[in-house]
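Now read this:
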Amino acid sequence: MFKLVPLIFRNVLRSRRRSLLTLASTAISLGLLALMLAIYQGFFHAEDSSPSEALRLVCRHRVSLTQTLPASYQQRILAIEGVADATAWSWFQGTYIEPQNFFARFAVDPDRVFNIRQDWIISDEQRTAFQRERTACAIGEAIAEKYDIELGDRMTIVGDIYDVTLELTVAAIFRHPPNTESLVFHREYLTELLPQAAASRDEVGTYLILADSPAAVPRVARAIDTMFDNSPYPTRTESEKEFGRSFLAFLGNIKLFLAAICGALTFTILLVSANTVAMAVRERTREMAVLRTLGYTPGEILLLVLGEAMLISIVGGALGVALGAGLAALIASGSGGFPLPGVKWQAATVVITLAAIIGVLAALVPAVLASRKNIVESLRFSG
């Protein structure tokens, strides 16, 4: 077996152009596959980014995110046993300078939001400044760096969902390890800007809730939904992670979509690899017959072809993992702070293993045919 290793490397390097093209096509396809797996892992199997994330719940209208909840629900939610704190969490959207300057903007209760978002790191001085000034806002460090914003700067957000313009002063810049791009401002300020007759003055998009322990999370969710079950505004309360998946469900069956892409990519790689190996074996029919005359067994010919295909596939898989990690980092940096994780070791293992399997499947038939071919007929083969 080991005597075949130098021969395998030599044969792979013999037609460098073809090997490089096969390697590139394999790496690109498997890179996209690694990216799909990273997205799947981020959506459905991501770990909590902090201990407080496991305690947070999101309460929204049961029917749709586009429907609002009464502002009066906050005090009733706070009275439920197991609720440590709760704040309005209303999506504002709007435009900052240019429409493409996208980042999350929420109207919140300034006295409560940092109790609930404990993973947002902020100094006591800036936290107090944010709470004290009605037109103050707090922004993530990523926003400050991206738009060159400092404490005391003014930010104008022109509303689209709400027909108002926010004139905000940056009173706090917080850090968040996943580098989320978020801006929060006083819900009271938004209410004052809305017309007196506007129904939205007394409405909230969602509530962000902090449970007092992990064990209390499901109990609090049930208690909130039961409390408002027969009201005109029934609720659906779920963990922050479940809420994220529910949000994605509005886009359709994400699991089926990702599975379809992964299947198509795998099938494409298999076809490309099988065609390349078949061509290579056909061109070397006479050479393999010579090897048989020199004493190489049919089993060794089989291993030789399989080894060449697996070497290209595995190297392509490794390059694909690196490419997928780069694409994931690129998408995360331009997603407005959506916490897309990188390619984890589980996804990398799947890609490398799949690459090896593809190499075997693509080369199996040509390798078996090459090992069983009659020596005399092979020597007469003229291509």
In short: The chain has a mean pLDDT of 85. The longest strand covers residues 165-174. Residues 124 and 172 are 10 Å apart (CA to CA). The chain has 14 helices and twelve strands.
